[in-house]
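Re: that chain you flagged

S.,

Sorry for the slow reply, it's been a week of failed gels. I finally had a moment to sit down with the sequence you sent. For the record, here it is as I used it:
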Amino acid sequence: MVTIKASYTVVPNQPTPEGIQWLSDIDQVASLLHTPTICIFHTKHNHGTLVQHMRNSLSKILWHYYPLAGRLRRLREDGRFELDCNAKGAVLIEAETTKTLHDYGQFLGDSIKELVPTIDYTTNTPLEELPLLLVQVTSFLGDEAFSIGIAMCHTLCDGAAGFQFINSWAKLARGEPLEPHEMPFLDRTVLKFTAPPSPPRFDHLELKPLPLILGRSDNTAEKNKKVKATFLKLTAEQVEKLKHKANADESTKGSRPYSRFEALAAHVWRCACRARGLDEKQPTLIRFNADFRNRVIPPLPRNYFGNALALTAAASQVGEILSNSLGHAAQKIREAVEVLTHEYISSQVYTAPLFLVPF
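Prediction finished late last night. Pasting the structure tokens below so you have them in one place:
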């Protein structure tokens, strides 16, 4: 059981720029939720001293990452989000649990939710009052360990930017200064795309409706099915085995070996096709997001803090996916990423209402 002992509002330790910050079209499409991250530390500590140290270091890093101390607001005219850099601060929660590390097992499933702060967007609390960053420091009674649960607003940053913030915070917490090349780049206007030529040059498979089951006129039956999420942990050995299997097919080898993501995504795609037991001519589609920081022209500045993900998709037929090798599916995953050029991403922004395709 987790007991909340105190909650603190942490503001930047120095004055920060004020005013409204424009958020890109890519930020607009990010789901309005707080993405959770948990860090576990096996070390002897004094709980009170630890919490005070975390508050102080968080205050310091918020001076550099001051957007996280601001608040979102939504424009009535077009529904877009914008960021009010008002330095209202982040929230740090002090907590203790009577559970041990062993009780949490592999830190998977619902049991870990009590270690990460949450934001309920269904309440009547105005959006302008919701913090964009929440942190929970939890000590495990009986263990020389503690956890730091971090919840960051996805509208403000993606995973790469989020870990950039966490790593920079960790460095300041250790008493080390941030070097000039480690400073975040906060100007999102670098992602103001110009309108592409009309009509659109690209088909944009990723924006089209998912394929229907053969013989059906709508997806009502699929929507009515109960869906349950679960976590499946893969060992490093299992991941390497899948990578080796994907790269064993000489006919699909490209200029570089398939990555962990390409091999795992291909494996999940094939497993889903097999588990559903569909006709071999059934169209099948896999959609995912890809980082485009180095795919736009010019590439985004180093340490760009924001969302830089684009939706993409790979398509095939069930029979093709199952009758061919893992490398064949991995190649389709790779091609879906390679299609994301500057022109393609710009076209995607202007072709469809991105508010309808959140990631």
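What I noticed first: Residues 15 and 56 are 15 Å apart (CA to CA).

Talk soon,
D.
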